[in-house]
Amino acid sequence: MSRRRTRPDTSGKPGYITPDGYRRFEEEADRLWNVDRPKMAKAVQVAAAEGDRSENAEYQYSKQRLAAIDRRLRFLGRRLKVLTIVDEKPPDGGKVYFGSWVTIETNDGSTQTYRIVGPDEIDADKKWISMDSPVGRSLLSREVGDEITVRRPKGKVTGEIIAVRNIERN
Predict the structure, then answer these.
(1) Which domains does the chain have, with CATH numbers?
(2) Which residue of 11, 84, 93, 161 could cross-link 78, Cys pair, CB 3.0 to 4.6 Å?
(3) Whole-angstrom Cα distance, residue 43 to residue 137?
(4) Using CA of residue 10, residue 122, residue 165, residue 145, what is the dihedral sign?
């Protein structure tokens, strides 16, 4: 059985996260601990009471699911200890900082809007990209009107930053 990860385990490495991202991690840990884990522990107990555990698929599944919940709880616990919440207002509202929304017009005329976040928050569907990604690195500290070039496997892409929106923070 392959145990390939979709993302590297960064649980012990420090990193940056938005206040919303940190809150989502806390809420997930709370839900896993107070709702999902007790429900699965009860399912293990019920399945174990049915007799022979070696051929009891429900018992085996419940044990595996409980172990997965425990792994996720350990991961979240380690991450929450080392993450730095970035909630300061950027010094220059026109520059791209961590948490900024950036709109780029590429050389082919298409526009893309991205949010710069930490590796723990990336979400392709929402267009949230890591500050460590090639696009994220090329955007940080830039401002409206700046040209950017990103090297991708399919070749270079050039574009211009046409809008920067920084979220109001404390």
Answers:
(1) 15-85 (1.10.287.180), 101-165 (3.10.50.30)
(2) 11
(3) 46
(4) positive
